[in-house]
Amino acid sequence: MNLYAILRRDGFADGATLEAAAARSTEVGNDMPDDIRWIRSYVLGEKGGTLGTVCIYQASSEDAIRKHAQTADLPVSEIIPIADTVIVRPDPE
């Protein structure tokens, strides 16, 4: 599996909408264990007051990411293959 960043700009009206989307994503992802694995997400405060995310996934392909997003009713603005990881410090809590 390869590592990808999925950018979801202005995808969620508020925290409750994002939480519901995360539940759908988890449920659909659990049905596709050989094709996709959600690693983590960073929530973005968008200019218009909505929320976006940068999601890190392991996936068998970009098509698997698109299938997952379509099935879970998730927006996808961009899929970016991750070439390498450089960790300077662990993520803050």
Topology readout:
Elements: E1 2-12, H1 15-30, E2 36-45, E3 51-59, H2 62-72, E4 78-81
Antiparallel strand pairs: 1-3, 1-4, 2-3
Give an overview of the whole structure:
The protein has helices at 15-30, 62-72; strands spanning 2-12, 36-45, 51-59, 78-81. The chain is globular and about 35 Å long. With 93 residues, the chain is of the alpha+beta class. 29% of the residues lie in helices and 37% in strands. The mean pLDDT is 95.
Q: Could you name the ranges where pLDDT drops below 50 across 5 or more consecutive residues?
A: none
What series of H and E elements makes up the topology?
A: EHEEHE
Q: What general form does the structure show?
A: globular
Radius of gyration: 13 Å
Largest sheet: spatial strand order: 2-3-1-4
Counted by DSSP, the helix tally is 2
Summarize model confidence as the mean pLDDT: 95
The number of distinct β-strands equals 4
Q: How helical, in percent, are the residues?
A: 25-40%
Structural class: alpha+beta
